[in-house]
Amino acid sequence: MIKPGQTKNLLGFGYDRVLDDYKIVTIIDQKTYIFTFKESSWRESKLIPSSDCFFKERTGTVVDNCMYWIANRFNKEKFILCFDFVNEEYSKLNVPMMLSGLEFNSWLDVSRGELCVINHYPSVDDNLCVCRREIRSGKKIARWDSDPWMNVAGNDDEPVDIRFVCIAKNDEVFVVVRCRSKEEEDNVFVYNKEQNEFIEVLFSSHLKVLGCMTKLM
After folding, report:
1. InterPro entries attached here (predicted)?
2. Global pTM?
3. Alpha-carbon distance 158 to 182, whole Å?
């Protein structure tokens, strides 16, 4: 069951609009445990649908009473695991794959009130693409549409590691990158649609000091 100090389990927090109750969901050893605020107690629920998967991020992304995590299978198949806080059921969504046969990394985020997937293709000039759902009937995804592709490397031939990607409220795409050949600090860039390139976000000196302090803690 739930043990004090548990740090490796998946976590999700969402709202059940039918019961008017908030819930916490956690997955430990393929088993699902749910905490309801009205009952103020944990109970065991269903097993996750795939037992041979692992997850990139511990905390997921919540949209419309559902929690989403990107799951990886040991055979390299990726999918999106969805947990519905209302019926407490799992479902699986395909991760949009714009270029078949190439390895890519994915992040989940929310844009324009909808779930979106950000894919990074290291072997294609470190390109990023934001994929959005096209929903035609109910919540069923008819297909994924991709925004225009964004190039992280630009004119710089230096390979980079993309550590994190997110979308801000104004639909701006932020990336945290580090050069692979240099021991440098992470740099933050924001995509400028007019210039069609990523521009570095320069932080003030006191923010840099704060970043150094957090690394020492």
Report:
1. F-box-assoc_dom_typ3, F-box-assoc_interact_dom, SCF_F-box_component
2. 0.75
3. 10
Buried b (16+ CB within 10 A) or exposed e, 131-152: bbbeeeeeeeeeebeebeebeb
**pLDDT, tens digit (0-9, with 9 covering 90-100), for 108-167:** 988 878 888 888 887 777 788 888 876 655 555 557 777 878 877 654 556 667 888 888
Q: Is the pLDDT of residue 173 over 80?
A: yes
- Asked if 79 contacts 95 with a C-beta cutoff of 8 angstroms, the reply is yes
* CA–CA separation, 24 and 1 (whole Å): 14
Burial of 45 (0-12, 13-18, 19+ CB in 10 A): middle
Structure-token match 């096209």, residue found? 134
Looking only at the bridges linking them, the beta strands covering 61-63 and 66-73 are antiparallel
Give me the helices (H) in the chain, please. 205-216
In whole angstroms, what is the distance from residue 96 CA to residue 145 CA?
9
CA dihedral sign, ordered 117, 121, 126, 127: negative
